[in-house]
Specification:
single chain; 321 residues; alpha+beta; Serine Threonine Protein Phosphatase 5, Tetratricopeptide repeat; Jelly Rolls; 2 domains; eight-stranded antiparallel β-sheet; four-stranded antiparallel β-sheet; 10 helices
Length: 321
């Protein structure tokens, strides 16, 4: 954002434009074109909430759910969602329905926390392989959750990238699908709880999670044979692994049915998997000593009919800052 744009935005805020106040708060939250100052951003969003801005309450729900600028507090996040719904946000009302919460804020008025255990617990975990460790979690996500994630991420899809010799991703003909990342302005409360559900399966913390990705494959698109671990054969990638850790685990959630082909293929293991909507495939990328496990190289095969949607979560060996 250029200086004239910032100046104009500040002038509109001073004139009392609450929409501009929310925009400015978001810029300050991430330091886009202006000095990053999360506490100031939160204060601006709270000010906008007092003026009845649903977008401000929605953003505060994300901040509370993800621990960005606020202590992580899913209960508080839901309270902000209730505020947004009260201000007329259809998105907030729909998300509350998915979470099993009343949009009229009955729980908040009674000062009783929402029981989130059902939203953060997974059942039906099945071990497919001990070495390498491969799990299948049937019905990990509901059909409604899957549809929500597709709807939320679809508008932001771009060409998927790969890592080759540097820490910077790049376009490659070996990967032709599209993807999007659920960063702070695309994330929501539901996804934060879904990540908690993943962490429960893995018996780890979401602090080790990279940005969650939505993957989309049109017929004929693929991700050719690859490993999800990072090669450390260049100084850049070695430094990346040293700072942020190796990719220890991949967690894939199948978000739709109705396509042919499109299996996840592990040729060295003689194993292919294609989940039903809501099923998850989880596999380790490393050996016991922390080195890459080349038996887990796999391919996202092309669909022959219909599109394929996946939620992809990479997990590191060190907290992701």
């Amino acid at each position: 954002m250029s200086d004239p744009e910032i100046k104009g935005l500040l002038e509109r805020v001073r004139a009392g434009d609450v929409g501009s106040l929310v925009v400015l708060a978001k810029r300050v939250l991430v330091g886009e074109g202006i000095k990053q100052a999360p506490p100031d951003a939160i204060a601006m969003l709270e000010m906008a909430v007092k003026q009845g801005a649903p977008e401000a309450a929605l953003q505060l729900s994300v901040c509370a759910a993800w621990g960005v600028g606020l202590p992580r507090n899913p209960q508080k996040a839901i309270e902000y969602l209730v505020m947004a719904a009260g201000f007329g946000s259809t998105v907030a009302k729909r998300e509350l329905a998915l979470l099993g919460c009343a949009s009229d804020g009955a729980h908040a008025q009674a000062k009783q926390p929402v029981d989130l255990s059902a939203l953060t617990t997974a059942h039906g975990v099945r071990i497919v392989s001990e070495r390498p460790r491969i799990l299948v979690v049937e019905r990990f996500a509901t059909e409604a959750e899957c549809a929500w994630l597709i709807e939320r991420g679809r508008p932001a899809l771009t060409r998927a990238l790969v890592y080759r010799g540097s820490a910077d991703a790049q376009v490659a003909q070996t990967r032709t699908n599209t993807e999007m990342g659920f960063t702070i302005f695309h994330a929501d409360v539901l996804l934060s709880l879904l990540r908690d559900r993943m962490a429960a399966v893995l018996q780890t913390s979401t602090r080790f999670f990279e940005v969650t990705k939505l993957l989309h494959y049109e017929p004929g698109e693929q991700f050719a044979l690859h490993g999800d671990f990072l090669q450390t054969n260049t100084p850049e990638l070695a430094q990346e692994v040293d700072l942020r850790g190796q990719r220890s685990t991949t967690f894939l959630v199948y978000l739709n049915d109705g396509f042919e082909g499109g299996e996840t293929d592990f040729p060295r293991l003689g194993f292919r998997y294609k989940g039903n909507r809501g099923d998850a495939l989880v596999f380790s990328n490393l050996q016991a000593d922390g080195s890459p496990d080349y038996s887990t190289v796999h391919a996202g095969l092309a669909t022959t009919r219909g599109e394929k949607w996946l939620l992809s979560q990479w997990v590191r060996t060190k907290p992701v800052g």
